[in-house]
# Entry
Amino acid sequence: MESEMTEDRKITKKERTEQPDGEVKQVVDFALEAGRILLKNGGEIFRVEETITRICQHFGVEHVDIFTLSHGIFVSAENEKGEVYTRVKHIPLSGSHLGIVAEVNELSRQIAGGKVTILEAQERLVQIDRIPPSRARTQVLGAGMGAACFGYLMGASLAESVVTFFIGCLVYLWVILAKRCRLSKIIINIAGGIMITLCAIFATRLSTASMVFSLDGMIIGAIMPLIPGMAFTNAIRDIADSDFLSGTVRMMDALMVFVYIAVGVGIVLMTYNNMTGGFIL
# Structure
């Protein structure tokens, strides 16, 4: 009887050595939450899978299978008794927050280095998930500066770049307000394209003989804050890593945004062209 109890204690000690900070379910749930935060905020597919794998292996879950899509994560883990635990998490396509991605990466490195326990990591992850985005004022000014700089690179004059700055600020202010009202991405980008073109046309109508404004540079520069450049880049990277399904989904999402913006710009230009008899500055 004593030998059996001694053997049970040895088994328990062995299990604790292999999984010092929790059971399989706890570890998988935590790793899945870390992957969700990464994917939601613009992390690549390979980064999500690598982070989940490292967390699971560090906390003793060696047998883990991960299947990640652009909008979902499937994780299946098996303990030494042959019991399988599976979790599925749906993550809708959304914007990006590289600050959160960097914080999760840093937490993953600390976990791999054995600097934090799973309970400490869970508390840190909750704090990371609550990191607020940049202030609306900062986003609006950044969009205006980006629009002005891109407009100048695309051939706009200094005066046209100044106008483009204000157009970019106005359009991104609309984007922020529309997202808070949970409007569709289709409406946001079509309306944004319409707003940009109307403002650019209005600026050309106010131009004088000494300062003539052209539509091209202002429109091209002002639409840049609406372009999902990061999503498009991640899509190419996923395809390069042979994640064809996720890369294709992200690519289609980004390309449809291009189409929505083009529709908004095209509607206004076509209407203005018909009203002015084909005269466009």
Remarks:
- The two ends are 96 Å apart (CA to CA).
- Residues 1-22 have pLDDT under 50 and may be disordered.
